[in-house]
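#onboarding

Welcome to the new folks! Below is a worked example of what a typical request in this channel looks like: someone posts a single protein sequence, and someone else replies with the predicted structure as tokens. Don't worry about understanding the tokens yet, we'll cover that in week two.

Example request:
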Amino acid sequence: MTSVSPPTESRRAHPAGVGVAVPTGGINVRIVATGLLLFMAAVFVTAKYYQDVHPAVGFVRAFAEAAMVGGLADWFAVTALFRHPMGLPIPHTAIVPRNKNRIGDTLARFLLTNFLLPRLIARKMQTVDVAGAVGKFLSQPAEGGGRLRLGASRIIADGLGALDQQRLGGMVKSAIADRLRELDVAPLLGQALQAALAEGRHQPLLDAMVKWGSKTLDLNEHLIHQMVHDNSGAIVRFTGLDESISNRIVAGLSKLLSEMAVDETHPIRIRVEEGLAKLALDLQHDPEMQEKVARVRDELLDNPAVKRWLDGLWEQGRGALLRAARDPETMLAGRIGELVTQFGAMLGEDRAIKRTLNRYARRAVVGAVDSYGETALKLVSDTIRGWDAKTITDRLENAVGDDLQFIRINGTLVGGLVGVLIHTIDIWI
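Example response:
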């Protein structure tokens, strides 16, 4: 038997699904199907008029007659799906308009029982590498172009905006604190101090300390006089020696600080440098000193003020990242772009992070389906119920497209071939 199927171009030309009432070009195929039916009627009349001319005309007549029957039958079937044929209220016609509510309920129930089951979604999500896809998307900007710029910024902005900020902030701050606790601070401080001493970068600090000492001495000179006066005996105070002693003390200290300020080789400065050099070595090699520094580090991290500082640091960083993420032009520019690319590479290579992110994505999707699946399907059902009969008829008919008319064409041709077969059998009998 011969059948006609719609060309590939026609199928690709109408990808719209139900709910998008767009022109599909079906009117042209409808004209072809109707024209073929009328042509068969003309052939039948002509063949009947000339059936005595030659026996072969009988085959033509049989083909045309059966083709009309097949074409009319399929026209009736196709039309009965969406409306009453010729406007006649024939039973079991206009099937779609009469059953639109049941169609909506059945469609929603079909989706719920076959697609939106949490266990099915969970099983499917186990094979989906969300972290790998996101990592590849973020780490290959050359392939993404503007799509990457827009997509990456949208992913980061939406993700930061949607996540539980209290929980996420707690995780970030805890991770920072844990990383700082693991950091061996003492050797780093010792190396930095040793390098500063070797390059003479400590001299400005010593100069500043000497200047601070001179200024402090000038501002508190009266306290020295008062201390000497209070600790002197009555005879010393009576003779005025306490004031002379205090003046000598102030003058001596002032001279000492002045000499230290201009002489970098002053013995006291040398002693301070020797003490700093020993401290640098102890920080790098003395376990007892390193333990003391570690205790100070932990005490600082446990201090409420430091915790508040970490809170502010997280909020500032999150706010800055959100502002940058919402601006696609700057999202991938400069350092932020490098961080995004590095983050994408890390997602593609770090198995632990990838497993954690995939588990979070799976739980999020399954949780959303479990919580809102029935609500979404009720929306489908209620939307279809809200359509009037003409709307749902037009949208379903447009969604099917030319295929309905090709059913009529195929019915006409197949009916004609069956008519020829029956006529042949009739002649043989």
